[in-house]
Amino acid sequence: MELDIDNISEYYTRMSDQELIRVSTQDASGLRPEVFEIIENEIKKRNLNPNLINGALAQNKKYTTEELEKYSEKLRKLPCPICGQTEQKLNGTIAHSVKSFLIFTTFKTEPFIACPQCLDKKNNQALISSAILGWWGIPWGLLKTPAYIFRNITAKKQNHLDNSNETMLSFTLSNIGVLETYGNDNTKLTMLIQPKDQ
Fold first, then answer.
1. Percentage of the chain with pLDDT > 90?
2. Global pTM?
């Protein structure tokens, strides 16, 4: 049973500004068309960034690779969030790591946006960590370690591409609402690409 429009409107009215911003930039995919008018009215009423409605709408569009490339360029021109260099364009990678302790094995896949050299370092760290600590769990350590080593080697081949690689395009698409809302705010975009462990 779908909620009626008055209940939906009341739901958004009760949201805090931060919750409304989060929905508009990250969680608007799949919303009913009439909900966008409610969100837009709340944004205006609270005098929030008017681009928030664009961020919400952007999450409900289909994009070509060329369109995603254009959005990703906003991120690729930023300073590297790890080393700070600005000479090379940023790209993305996923570091795959396995750690085992006899019968206990943990797996980690962590995305990074950074310069090609820092991406290589992240893949190398995950590769070395897996090669040293991954094998010691039975059965998953023995099974997963070679696969994760291979994934890091494969990911490194994508780190130095001239265009946005698959990881960068995927990151761009999953953050399209933020990019549409804050596309000209380098401070917000820099925060978006910061490694989660920093």
1. 76
2. 0.87
